[in-house]
Write a structure and sequence with these properties.
It is a single chain. By secondary structure, the chain is mainly α. Helices cover 84% and strands 0% of the residues. The protein has helices at 2-35, 42-52, 54-75, 82-104, 110-128. It starts with a helix and ends with a helix.
Length: 129
């Protein structure tokens, strides 16, 4: 069991680093496309790719985070702290909402996902420090 938990932790750690790297690239892309002239370049293409597929990206991140938290609490039997529970309260609905929005191609879902994301981020930031 310990080997399974260790392997899963390594996979989640790698996915976390990959996600953070993508986040930095996307922020840089957003900055460049706002500051650079509006000529066609690779940054504008990347930005369009992300904006056209943001629901799928949110769904992917939410499902991985949900699966990770459920693995640790249900399989590895780690008891989540109070702040972990608060973070889960905002994260779990994002998986369901983004999945439904993906099926229905509902682009207006960001008005529901953004508050959940911001509140979860604030709690996670406090939790980290």
């Amino acid at each position: 069991m310990q080997q399974l938990v260790s392997s899963f932790t390594n996979i989640l750690s790698a996915l976390t680093l990959l996600g953070q790297g993508l986040f930095v690239v996307l922020l840089f892309t957003l900055l460049v496309t706002h500051l650079a002239p509006k000529k066609k370049n690779n940054f504008i293409k990347l930005r369009k790719l992300v904006t056209d597929n943001y629901i799928a990206i949110v769904f992917l991140f939410a499902v991985v985070a949900t699966a990770g938290s459920l693995f640790y609490s249900e399989i590895a039997e780690y008891v989540p702290c109070k702040l972990c529970w608060l973070e889960r309260i905002f994260m779990y609905p994002m998986s369901i909402i983004s999945f439904i929005a993906l099926l229905k191609n509902d682009l207006s879902v960001k008005k529901y996902l953004l508050p959940l994301s911001v509140m979860g981020f604030v709690i996670a930031l406090y939790h980290s420090f």
